[in-house]
Amino acid sequence: MLSTHPQRSTADRRAQAQANADQAARDQARRDRRTRVVLGAAAALAVLTVALVVWFVLGRGGPQVEGISELPEGVDAPSVSDAHGGISFGASGEAGSTSGEDAVRVDVYVDFLCPACAQLEDVNGADLESLRSEGSATVVLHAISFLDAKSDGGSYSTRAAAAFAYVADEAPAQAYDFQAALFDSQPTEGSAALSDEQIEGIAVRVGVPADVAEGIDGERYRDFVGALTQVAFGDPDLLDDQGRFTTPTILVDGTVFEGDWSRPGELRAAVEAAAAD
């Protein structure tokens, strides 16, 4: 009996095979990273690293940033960022959008090389995306950079954060998926950094047009990322109860979230409670 189902072309089958391979690679990367989180002393190492970097950044003879909570004038910032350097995502999912005045604002400060930040995405990414897409929350991402020394050459933290800022500006509809994909492909601290070409490939896989992705070179928003990092370390509203800034840092309607974000559902419950007030 002849099949009534149309036969797919060779090109279609190849495209599907490639899509399956890409998904398998992303799934494997996510499994590998979760294994690292379980086995390693990543959280302790991150805390130690932050303490050392705070000493390094604030102890240098650079510009005075203590108490500053907005970007300095003259910094080339993405058009979709706010005065604090945050890039918001509302119900539409596009960079620069919001979910309206009644939505809870959830600010998240991350470094794309920070293992704990990747764990935050693993545990809470789906919840935050759900709250955002249903209009209950506006998620505001602040991609900073203080772990460049932890990648084997290439200033990965800065380049990844600059790439996110660039994609948010040039391909706002794909920016949210792009930042999640960066965490899925996160290199291990101390290992070889991803190249710009590899970051471009990640962008293309989540739908960023190829001609836009080709513009990712880690340079355009380097100063923006540097300023955003200084602002984060200098903003007293971001300090924890011990007077330190760490990543990830989460604010729910302007108040530092002091719950345990590593427990599934706890951050979501805090956002929902704020929405009910």
Automatic annotation (TrEMBL):
Residues 104-272 form the Thioredoxin-like fold domain. The keyword Transmembrane helix applies. Pfam families: Thioredoxin_4 (PF13462). Keywords: Membrane, Transmembrane, Transmembrane helix. SUPFAM superfamilies: Thioredoxin-like. This is Thioredoxin domain-containing protein. InterPro entries: Thioredoxin-like_fold (IPR012336), Thioredoxin-like_sf (IPR036249). Residues 1-32 are annotated as: Disordered.
